[in-house]
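User: I'm writing a short report section on ligand binding and want a predicted complex to refer to. Could you take this sequence and magnesium ion and write out the structure as tokens? A short remark afterwards would be nice.
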Amino acid sequence: MKTEILKSSQQNILKVVGALQNDDVVALPTETVYGLAGRTFSDAALEKIFLAKERPLFDPLICHFPKQMNESPWRSLLKTGLIDTSKLSDSIQQKVETLANQFWPGPLTLVLPKSTRVPDLATSGLPSVGVRCPAHPLFQEVLLKLQEPLSAPSANRFGKISPTSANDVFDELDTRIPFILDGGLSSIGVESTIIGLEEDQFVVYRPGGLALEEIEAVLGNQLKTRFHSDHPVAPGMLKNHYAPTKPFYLFDGTLEALDAKILAEMQEKLAQGKKIALLLARGEVDRVPLAFKNEAQVVIRVLSPQGSSQEAAKNLFRYLREIDQMNIDFILAEQWPYTEVLGFALRDRMNRAAEKLQKTDKTP
Ligand code: TXA
Ligand code: MG
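Assistant: Sure. The structure tokens for the complex follow:
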């Protein structure tokens, strides 16, 4: 099958809607990362999602729904028939409704009790379903035309780096899907924050594009976190994910200690004639002594010179994918040093990118 990248136009939106109605799967832009979408209420479409991604069936999908005109996001969710509110206590439902109306459309996924209408394939047999109202206008337009929820994991092959542009999706899924709707670069760059409920407590399953502080400010209490686990409630929490194909060495610690360690590692690799990509978190490129600024052997990218986690999030997957495709032997990366705003999500993605590897260096 030839995969076509479609520019945004009414005609192309209708083409994409037609394909979805036909039980096909298509890649759509979201504000977090691109998604591979198929109708939640079609087992045939859900099967195609798992097949195209080579995703194991035990990894549940996030279900995306439209914000209806003149309806709150919460009312719009109830209309989909995806969730069973009878399983929520009044006080919890109140809080969920507040979160929904505060942060949707946007980069938040809520894991809630599912209704019997949701196919087991969509949730990997779990009694809950992850739901999200995405903010990207093109995804919303498709949902509004379809008037049906769409299950959509990130549009990458399982375990690989999530795509933040139409071209990234093409690199991942060419020949496997008919269409990619081009909605430009994803404005946030990391996946949604996932919150679930355990014994009437809100728990973070995945830090992401919505800062935990913002959610805590609305709930008025600290969130419990349960991500990056060896015993995940959901496989998206598995440690080894977002993996570059090149060896990825992660360095964590204070700036001075870190620079010394990175330099020592570089010296060793360069002496062996190896080519290196250096992914720095913050600061200027000249943090690295001039002696090593040999373009042929060292490529340098800085996530955010000013240390802004929003800027770094936008760049992370893009740079990872870019340097991974270059003619280099190793990626040396500096861990994002802050936990504020999107910092948790950045640190989480870096850790998981490094997990497959052989070596993570932590300076106390
Ligand atoms: O930003 C995003 O969330 C993107 C865009 C496309 O919306 N989607 C995304 O989907 O990141 P995916 O499939 O890459 O990650 C979905 C993860 C699962 O791996 C799992 O961790 C969690 O969402 N999840 C989904 N349903 C769940 C459930 N019922 N219980 C617990 N976790 C669930
Ligand atoms: Mg994913």
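A remark for your report: The two ends are 51 Å apart (CA to CA). Residues 358-364 have pLDDT under 50 and may be disordered.
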